[in-house]
Design goal:
Blueprint (H helix, E strand, L loop, with lengths): L2 H9 E13 L5 E5 L3 H4 L8 H13 L3 H7 L2 E7 L1 H11 L5 E5 L9 E7 L2 E9 L2 H19 L8 E6 L5 E6 L14 H13 L2 E4 L4 H11 L6 H18 L3 E7 L8 E4 L2 E4 L6 E4 L3 H14 L4 H12 L9 H19 L9 H16 L3
Helix pairs in contact: 8-12, 9-12, 9-13, 10-11, 10-12, 10-13, 11-13, 12-13
Length: 375
């Protein structure tokens, strides 16, 4: 039994409570979805495959038929939340009639549990749970980021409602949400994404020396991990770092906040506004509009399963439509790729999997950009 299983059993009581369906997929992700108000609960389930989207559409209609669970390999169990967690949630949301659904997290070094809370057909918020010291640090970082963004007038991100200990080893982070059953997730760039990122760039812009920026720190970190790259990749990544550092070094820059993990799975559209969540990797002083490049790369890598050449073509078709505020889209793309690699190498203490889809896609794209563009 893995650590996330131990954490799950610390906050969930099996064999008592309401009926839930346990859904798993080939990527090792799993959800606990209640039979009651199942359509509302499935807002927590964000599939990226056709089969997953089909399951999400059909399960509310067919879930009472036993054969469907044999086909989709779901298990049925009665579960409830542990009393201590129930008490905190009741206090935060001022309700004793909360319903919940559970996502056990994306398998990774920083896997965490996310619980969706609802009442009377309204989603109230989300509770993230961890016993991992690194993720605990991220929770406090996200709390600071959200406070800073709201102070700058960014209202389309959650508010932190509570961040504190549940036990000696478990920390919980509770946030608000505007999500409803009518919220929409777009897997291709839309004006909503551009409006959000532009608003972030304008509202949070700050002038500072490059060396004092968050972005400079991330480039420096990446340089320290260059020995951990594959031999055939080291020169390309080091060249990209030198290009970006050479461009900014010694200058006063106008940077802004970035989400850091801006993907279709961390945003939704509600009432013609895009709301973003999971800002654990956000920073306050980075090149504006990096989130757009990150979004394109993640859709190309994880949904479309593109190789580096195909990812490059995906970018090439879009950069012509980038707004004039972005002076050099390919340079911005290079900044984004280096920033993303820095995040992941730091998370894995330099031991990031060089066979992972992100590594292959990001490093491969760096090589293509360096070969084809003068930066």
């Amino acid at each position: 039994m893995g650590n996330i299983d131990n954490l799950t059993h610390s906050v969930i009581r099996m064999g008592r409570g309401n009926r839930f369906y346990h859904i798993s997929n080939a990527e090792g992700k799993s959800w606990w979805i209640p039979a009651r108000n199942i359509r509302m609960a499935l807002n927590l389930y964000q599939p990226s495959t056709r089969n997953g989207r089909l399951l999400k559409a059909l399960l509310p209609i067919l879930h009472r038929m036993p054969f469907i669970h044999r086909i989709i390999h779901t298990e049925t169990e009665q579960i409830s939340l542990c009393r201590k967690l129930e008490d905190v949630l009741d206090w935060v949301f001022n309700s004793s009639d909360l319903e919940f659904a559970v996502f056990e997290g994306t398998p990774s070094i920083n896997q965490k549990i996310t619980i969706q809370l609802s009442s009377k057909s309204k989603i109230l918020g989300y509770c993230k749970i961890t016993d991992n010291p690194k993720v605990i640090t991220q929770f406090f970082h996200e709390q600071m980021i959200l406070e800073q963004l709201h102070a700058k007038g960014i209202a389309t991100v959650p508010r932190c409602l509570y961040c504190g200990s549940l036990t000696d080893t478990i920390l919980i982070f509770i946030q608000s949400t505007e999500k409803t059953n009518h919220s929409v997730t777009y897997h291709q760039l839309d004006r909503f994404h551009w409006d959000f990122v532009k608003g972030l760039a304008i509202s949070t812009r700050v002038k500072c020396s490059f060396e004092e920026s968050d972005f400079a720190l991330f480039l420096s970190r990446l340089s320290s991990y260059i020995g951990n790259f594959r031999v055939e990749d080291k020169v390309s990544v080091q060249t990209a770092i030198e290009i970006v550092q050479g461009h900014y070094q010694g200058k006063i820059v106008e940077f802004s906040a970035c989400h850091g993990d801006f993907t279709p799975w961390n945003v939704f559209v509600e009432k013609n506004k895009l709301f973003a969540f999971d800002l654990e990797y956000a920073q306050l002083s980075c090149p504006p509009y990096m989130d757009i490049c990150y979004f394109i790369s993640q859709v190309a890598i994880h949904k479309l399963k593109y190789n580096p050449e195909e990812i490059y073509e995906c970018f090439r078709k879009r950069v012509a439509k980038f707004p004039q505020e972005i002076e050099d889209p390919w340079f911005l793309c290079l900044c984004t790729l280096l920033y993303s690699l820095s995040i992941y190498f730091h998370l894995y203490e330099g031991r990031y999997d060089t066979k992972s889809l992100n590594y292959i896609g990001w490093v491969g794209l760096i090589k293509v950009i360096i070969q084809r563009h003068t930066l």
